[in-house]
Specification:
It is a single chain. The chain has a domain at 77-226: Four Helix Bundle (Hemerythrin (Met), subunit A), CATH 1.20.120.80. It contains seven helices and no strands. The protein has helices at residues 2-7, 19-58, 79-103, 107-137, 146-178, 182-210, 214-223. Helix 5 packs antiparallel against helix 6.
Length: 226
């Protein structure tokens, strides 16, 4: 296909100086960005996986009390966590819409979707803080139960990565304000969308894990060989 493209080129038509070089440089930068993001996602996934392995092992000790399962446990009624999950899902949906709009060169709509994604992401973080406050008011401190400490560890790590994503969205918004370059913005939004969907998947797995009962932990631990 490259041969036919070369044969079809109109060599007598002048091209802007440096245009080919700029396109090649942009393409190389995009490849580097994709590779860097995939590497970072792989590292983060391994970190959460290793913490989960230790969590399952710790769940089989006598001092571990699951935060769900029994009526008096806080996550037996996980309505606030469901609300938080809905906010993060809406944030992920909004940024996916931004990706679609950017590919169609509808940058104003894409930026509107980015603002919505940022709003719902901040709503998710606020909701997580609400859950933290509720747990502290009920006496579920970090040091009183291993399940508590893992919950705070999981949500802190996830929240920090989400805050990093929000900073990336602000960077995209700033780039849009400075220069409405469709290709460059689309690539940045693509990277943010991939990262956002990854964070949503991680949270869904954590949500399922943290709201499981002791019996569920026992079954999973047996399957994992603990």
């Amino acid at each position: 296909m490259n041969i036919f493209r070369k044969l079809g080129e109109k060599s007598w038509v002048p091209h802007p100086a440096g245009a080919e070089f700029s396109a090649l440089e942009l393409n190389e930068n995009n490849k580097v960005g994709n590779i860097a993001l995939r590497f970072f996602i792989a590292v983060v996934a391994v970190i959460f996986f290793l913490i989960t392995i230790t969590f399952l092992g710790r769940s089989q000790m006598v001092d571990f009390q699951a935060l769900a399962g029994e009526p008096w446990q806080p996550f037996s009624d996980a309505r606030q966590l469901w609300l938080n999950t809905g906010a993060l899902a809406l944030s992920s949906l909004a940024i996916h819409l931004a990706k679609i709009f950017s590919h169609k060169s509808k940058l104003d709509l894409a930026m509107g979707a980015i603002f919505l994604a940022t709003f719902f992401a901040l709503a998710f973080l606020f909701g997580q803080l609400v859950v933290w406050k509720q747990l502290y008011q009920l006496g579920y401190y970090v040091q009183t139960n291993p399940a508590n400490s893992y919950y705070y560890l999981y949500t802190s790590l996830h929240g920090l990565h989400l805050m990093g994503g929000i900073l990336a969205l602000f960077y995209v918004i700033g780039k849009f304000i400075r220069n409405k370059a469709t290709d460059d913005l689309s690539k940045s939004i693509n990277l943010c969308t991939t990262y956002w969907h990854f964070l949503l998947i991680i949270w869904l797995l954590l949500f399922a894990l943290l709201t499981s009962s002791s019996e569920t932990f026992r079954v999973i631990a047996e399957l994992c060989g603990f």
